Every structure is written in C-alpha cells, then in structure tokens.
Amino acid sequence: CGRGPGGCRGGRTDMALRCAASLAAGRQPRGPRREGTVRWSSAAKASAVKINDKASREKILTLESMNPQVKAVEYAVRGPIVLKAGEIEKELRKGIKKPFTEVIKANIGDAHAMGQRPITFLRQVVALCTYPNLLDSPSFPEDAKKRARRILQGCGGNSLGSYTASQGINCIREDVASYIERRDGGVPADPDNIYLTTGASDGISAILKILISGGGKSRTGVMIPIPQYPLYSAAISELDAIQVNYYLDEENCWALNVNELRRALNEAKAYCNPKVLCIINPGNPTGQVQNRKCIEDVIHFAWEEKLFLLADEVYQDNVYSEGCQFHSFKKILYEMGPEYYNNVELASFHSTSKGYMGECGYRGGYMEVINLHPEIKGQLVKLLSVRLCPPVSGQAAMDIVVNPPVPGEESYAQFIKEKESVLNNLAKKAKLTEDMFNKIPGVHCNPLQGAMYAFPRIFIPSKAIEEAEAHKMAPDMFYCMKLLEETGICVVPGSGFGQREGTYHFRMTILPPVEKLKILLEKVKDFHIKFLEKYA
C-alpha cells in the first residue's frame, strides 16, 4: 500500500481524522507533507462538527435510566464511611495534619489486611498448584505435594489456569462431602449436592436468584435477621424481592425467637409470598451462637410453614464462649428424623474467608443443597454455568480447608499450632473487646460468643440526634463519621445492618493485633465520653 500521493484510502482517511481532531481542538489542520492543496478539508471540517456534536450529546446511561434495582442496592460494609476513610488516607499521605497518624479500618472482616499470618500449609499447596515446577523442590513437604498433585490431576491440562466444571473440580467436591461427614459425626453427604462458589456470597446470590419469582402479592418474600449482613438486603434489592425482617433479641444475647419468626411471617403474608428463611450462625454482626434447641425450633418452623432454609455458616470455626458449640443445620435436620430430613429444603454455605484461614482474596467457598427438586438441580447448574466456574485457585484453597493435614502427616504439628494460635487469639480479643466496651458509660456490648465482630449498643444524646438530622444523616452514621474524623477509626453504623427503631449500634471487627486493639478501644472510650459531654 503506497503512502505517498495517490496512496490507498486508508492513508488519506488517517490524515482526515487527524485533521478533524485538530479542528475539534480549535487548531488549524496541517496539510500532508507535500506541496499542493488539501482537497479533503471540507470533509475534515464536517467530521469535526460531528465530533463536537458527540461531545455535547446526553449520556445513554444516567441515574434516571439505569436499572432501578441496582440503584436501590446498599452495602454498608463498603459504604460512605469507608469512602470517607479512603479520602482521609489520601490526605495523610499528602502530609495534611490530622489528630491521628493512620486510619484503622475496623469495618470489615479482612484478617490478613489486619496482620494475621496465612496458614503455611494452605499457601504451600496453592503455590505448588500455581507453579507445578515447585513439586520437585525439597523445600515443600510431601503431604502438600500429594494434595497439589491430586488437585492438578482434576484440572484440564493439569493446570490451575484451565476452566473447571461449573459445579467445581470433582475431587474437591468429594473432599467437601467427606469434611461435612466428619464434622457432622457421620451424617451422609453427596458430592453431587456440593457446589463450589466464589466465596459464600456467590452461592447465596445464586440460590436467591433461583428462588425469587412472582409479582404483586405473590412476589417472593425473603426472611432475614435484623441485624443482618448487608449482602442479604443488597441481593434482595437487586432481585426486586421482598425483604421480610425478623428481629433478634438483643436483651437475650441476640437470640432467635420462633415467636418473632411467626410474627414476621404472618404480617408478611398480607403483601408477599414468604418462602425463604435466612439464618446466620454464628451471627454477623451480632456474634451469637445458636444452641441446639433453637436450631430444632427453626427447622420445625421451616417444615411447618414450607420455607426454604438458607444457613450461612461461614463462621463455624469461630466459636469462643464457654458452653457454646457450633451445630450445623444439616446435622440437626438429620437427627430430627426422616420426616424432616427428607423434606426440608436446605442450602448451607461455607468459605475460605473467615474461620482461622482468613483467605478473603482467594474467593473460595462452597454450598451444599439438599432436597432440591431434580429438575431444579439442572436449572441451578445452568445458572452457575453462566459464570463458567469459580476461581480455580479459590477452589484449591477451599480444598485445604476441608482436607487439612491429619495426625501422622509431616505438616500436622505446624498446621494445628497455627490454627489454634489464630483461634485462641481471637477468643482472647473477643473477651477483651466485650469487657472494655462494657466499662464505657453509655455503651453496652453483649458477649461475643462467635464470629469476629462486636456490635455494641451506644447511647446518642438528643442534641446529637438533632444535629445528625440537620446533616440528613442517621444518628449512628453521624456518630461513626465523627469517630472517624477525630480518631481515624473506621467502623460501620448499625443502621447499615438494621436495628430496632430508637436503638443505635456500630459494628467493629476484633481482628487487629491485641496491642493495636487495646489502643483502638481506648480511643473509642475517650471519644465516646467527649461525645456525651459535648452533646449532653
């Protein structure tokens, strides 16, 4: 293709476009690098006019034209308070003076970001899967190599970089089923009922998608605890379902009361079709651990009212209080007998992100779904196939959670030492947080039986409430903003999780190292006392 005079149209078109761009920018076009008249200047001018027209055109996608369900979504854990924390961090980096030197992000359960060390064995296996050449290295233990080889054999081309089946790698689903059987004392688990997911959130969203239907008064109602983890309210908004709130009993350590479930259900029947009941155990943000009797009552209620049960059990390793024990809904359901076990539809969820692992970034998780209609099982696999497969490195990480070293293997001693260290440290911090909060005037914190958060109730004076309303803020959002601006501590207001009207809370993770946690709690104490004095 010639580039001189009389060359192909492509060369002349390129020159015309450059000329048009010059005109659009208010510059005179330069001619080609040869003598003669620029014969296409009129076309260039016409193109420039079009460019200017396009610059002034209205956007197709605006707040008014966007999907209203997406606009309705709120996710407090990464909401306005966190955006403000990010702005303050930028100001600190620029050298702008603040009453503090760092922002402490206690808003989210991100263990490694708070300094928790990874579990060595888990990282070794994922490293071996990611770079199989390391399988020849003497630096890695044989039990880690054995697991990595098995995972890689389940991958196309023996590579973690290949797609997997939409339901997940088969051998990992087998390991999940074996883990569930061990955890639940021999209750059978079928790998075909296991679905590997992108964290627990992906599984919860998928199940809700397939459950929600109808319109008007027949639209699906989803019962969720208040306070709740905002994933639920966000997913319900996005899917245009009906949120049905049932309140946990704060005066009784955030217990779940079946009479409250019945009240919420009966009231909701007037405007929707409640058919889903969500349970978070151990609780987020409230940290309660449900006892066996409570779980039996909930299962009986679901059976009686024909509700599909969702059991969010991602904190099943995080139980600290004496006398408390994690019971899976699957195990209790089985032990209640065949009338329940063969009929109640149950989806339960687990994740690599919490527990002692804290591997949030791998986005590993699974769900077990039992008593699903065979035709619906096919529909669920179809839905999951749209996203092809969960992250394969996350699947590998999930495998180590359910298939850790066992006694007699060379990595067992180090693994159990690291695991117990993390969980013992969390138990210590849970008690420390509860005790210190309860020494602050105007603050009450229930025992942190499990999970990794405190959800203290705070007294906010009427003058502060009035000022919050003047700023068009919820009172606890106003409180948390002030706390952030004056101390650098980022927590999430209780209004983002839901709470009884007239009560105020915030959620704070207990993940910071013990010494930093003590400093954080002292700062909260000093701030709260000054806040009460200012607005008394």
TrEMBL record:
Q: Which domain of life is it from?
A: Eukaryota
Which UniProt keywords are present, listed alphabetically?
A: Aminotransferase, Pyridoxal phosphate, Transferase
Naming one, the record's GO cellular component terms include:
cytoplasm
First-tier enzyme category under EC: transferase
**A Pfam family of this chain:** Aminotran_1_2
Q: Which pathway, metabolic or otherwise, does it act in?
A: Amino-acid degradation; L-alanine degradation via transaminase pathway; pyruvate from L-alanine: step 1/1
The protein's required cofactor(s) are namely:
pyridoxal 5'-phosphate
Q: Which residues cross the membrane?
A: none
| Listed SUPFAM superfamilies | PLP-dependent transferases (SSF53383)
One Gene Ontology MF term:
pyridoxal phosphate binding
Q: Which GO terms describe its biological process?
A: L-alanine catabolic process
Please list the reactions this protein catalyses: L-alanine + 2-oxoglutarate = pyruvate + L-glutamate
UniProt entry tagged with the keyword Transferase: yes
Q: How does it assemble?
A: Homodimer.
Similarity comment: family membership: Belongs to the class-I pyridoxal-phosphate-dependent aminotransferase family. Alanine aminotransferase subfamily.
Give the protein name, as stated in the record: alanine transaminase
Species per Swiss-Prot/TrEMBL record: Myiagra hebetior
